[in-house]
Design brief:
273 residues; alpha/beta; two-stranded antiparallel ribbon; globular
């Protein structure tokens, strides 16, 4: 992997700069459990990056767990209840409010106390979750597409951003429900991380293209969503993905990605952008 330009200082920045230069990753400065969060849009490569960092740190003698927000999805039966009680759009997994956020917070707090944790894993094929073998870790890498995002101002919710919102949420019930979760349990979740890095995609069109590339692997197996289904699926994520530049002033570190996911620039929040 080629090196990237960088400025400022943060632990995440030092990690990613070392990784890009194929150098040993910086070790934590103390013996306390360390929670590092990574936020990136769908198809950005966040899961792959976390797995590679996990492997390299483990080679350096650390115990590292990778935890995905996706693994804490509510199962379909639970989302069906939300669809009946709150809004039909709640049936689609992915947006804030469709995760076992309270359980994830409890699990992360247990990790930070030094306890072994049986992390949840979610099978997207069967829509069922299970508990992994309990493990202790020195570092947890928590990755998710909406980590770090704050709630939007209510006035920003009033203008529908796409056809899904215009046709199915004219009274803003679903948008406000998602926003309430961002202001509540997801804010509590975000506060637990020692640092947050944001992988910044070039634009929404690129995110959709990247997500389509992910689906192509499933198409070859006769699985996954067809192009029309995928286009509709992405509408659920458009609002918050377009809102994500707010992370420029929130994330401790920002990694700008090029159109083919190449690393362009690392910067820290304290440095000029």
């Amino acid at each position: 992997m080629s090196s990237v330009s960088s400025s400022g200082s943060s632990y995440w920045r030092r990690i990613l700069e070392s990784f890009s230069l194929n150098q040993p990753l910086p070790m934590p400065t103390d013996q306390q459990p360390l929670l590092l969060a990574l936020s990136a849009a769908q198809g950005s490569g966040k899961s792959t990056l976390c797995q590679k960092l996990q492997q390299q740190w483990q080679q350096q003698g650390l115990k590292v767990a990778v935890v995905s927000l996706d693994d804490y999805y509510l199962d379909r039966a639970e989302r069906q209840v939300l669809a009946q009680l709150v809004h039909p759009l709640c049936l689609q997994r992915g947006v804030p409010g469709t995760h076992h956020s309270g359980q994830l917070i409890d699990d992360l707090l247990a990790f930070l106390r030094g306890q072994a944790v049986a992390w949840r894993r979610f099978d997207k094929g069967t829509e069922q979750s299970y508990l992994d073998t309990p493990v202790q870790a020195d570092i947890v890498l928590l990755e998710g597409w909406c980590l770090g995002l704050p709630a939007q101002p209510d006035e920003d919710l009033r203008q529908a951003i796409n056809q899904l919102e215009r046709q199915h949420d004219p009274q803003l019930i679903w948008r406000r429900w998602v926003n309430q979760h961002l202001a509540g349990d997801y804010a509590q979740l975000n506060a637990l991380a020692a640092e947050l890095v944001w992988l910044q995609a070039p634009d929404w069109a690129t995110v959709c293209r990247w997500r389509s590339q992910q689906e192509e692997a499933l198409w070859q197996k006769g699985q996954g969503q067809n192009p029309a289904e995928l286009a509709e699926f992405m509408l659920y994520f458009e609002r918050l993905t377009r809102f994500s530049p707010v992370l420029t002033s929130i994330a401790d570190c920002r990694l700008q990605l090029g159109p083919e996911r190449q690393w362009l620039q690392l910067s820290s929040r304290s440095s000029p952008h």
